[in-house]
Amino acid sequence: MSEALKAVVLAAGKGTRLRADGVDLPKVLRLANGKPLLSYVLDDISFLPREDTILVVGYEGEKVLSAFPGYPHVHQCPQLGTGHAVQCAQCALEGFEGHVLICYGDMPLLGRKAYEKLLAAHLAEGNACTLMAGLADRPLPYGRIIRDAQGGFSRIVEDKDCSEEERQVKELNAGVYVFKSQELWRALTTLRPNNAQGEYYLTDAPVWLLKEGEKVGVCAACTPEEMLGVNTVEQLQQVEEFLKKREDKA
Predict the structure, then answer these.
(1) Which of 53, 181, 182, 217 is 20 to 30 A from 233 (CA-CA)?
(2) Alpha-carbon span 161 to 232, nearest angstrom
(3) Is the pLDDT of residue 194 over 90?
(4) Quick check: is 50 catalytic?
(5) In terms of C-beta distances under 8 Å and separation of at least 24 residues, what long-range contacts does 1-4 make, across chains too?
């Protein structure tokens, strides 16, 4: 692509709930079908050169960097949410003027085509921010993307906060974004930990940009399967089953 693009991969999690099986590894180094979760993500965004892919590491970050050497990186300590993770990465992007892809090191099913579709929509529409969405025929525990009367993006409502009507919305937030860099830096300064967890949420950024009159888009680029992240042993097993099925079909 001709536009300047860099990626920020959030890979700082400890994976506390995954430790129920006794394995002492950072979340993104847990194996699924023989490979670390982060390996799948980095393979699928390998259309970007390594030097343009910034890893945000935290718990036992030295293990992550040892497994994936040569990537620019920053440390997130303490870990205060997704918005805070991107704030930590800003120093590695100082002076960069282009677009920033933000994705997660624990989402191994999200394929290259989905990332490329998101980026293409973002550039074609001239958005300040574009959210990746997935469409699901049944309710799943993801944030819902709420549209305004004209069909444009309005806000994100987390599953636990949904009304009965909102819970029926089929357009789900995958948590992957592309921002114009300068608009991202502006939005990051507005994030506040005004929630029960005391964390800085990246989901607040596109809503703030919209209120500022900026253009925010949504791209239904992925399937519900591709949105699956790994937080529990059960989810790790589920992801591994999907990966094995893909391998069998290949």
Answers:
(1) 53
(2) 22
(3) no
(4) no
(5) 1/119, 1/123, 3/98, 3/99, 3/123, 4/96, 4/97, 4/98, 4/99
The SS3 assignment for 231 reads coil
Q: What is the CATH number of domain 5-249?
A: 3.90.550.10
Is-contact 37 25, C-beta < 8 A? Answer: no
- Computed on alpha carbons and rounded to an integer, the radius of gyration of the chain in Å comes to 17
Q: For residues 107 and 228, what is the distance between their CA atoms, to the nearest angstrom?
A: 6
Cα 60 from Cα 172, distance rounded (Å): 31
Task: Select the more confidently predicted residue: 17 or 139.
Answer: 17
Per DSSP, helices labelled H in 103-225 are 112-125, 164-167, 181-188, 204-211
Distance CA(75)–CA(12), nearest Å, equals 8
Residue 171: which H helix or E strand, with range? strand 171-180
Dist. CA 89–CA 55, nearest whole Å: 8
Structural tokens at position 225: 């399967």
With cut-offs at 50, 70 and 90, classify the pLDDT of residue 24.
confident
- Which distant-in-sequence residues (6+ apart) come within 8 Å of 127 by Cβ? 121, 178, 180, 215, 216, 217
Query: What size, in residues, is the chain?
Result: 250
Question: 138 pLDDT band (50/70/90 cuts)?
Answer: confident
Considering only CA atoms, which of 104, 103, 94, 125 is closest in space to residue 178?
Answer: 103
CA separation, residue 244 to residues 35, 44, 54, 239, 250 (Å) = 12, 17, 28, 9, 10
Task: Report the relative pairing of strands 35-36 and 5-11 from DSSP bridges.
Answer: unpaired
Q: Does residue 202 contact residue 69 with C-beta atoms inside 8 Å?
A: no
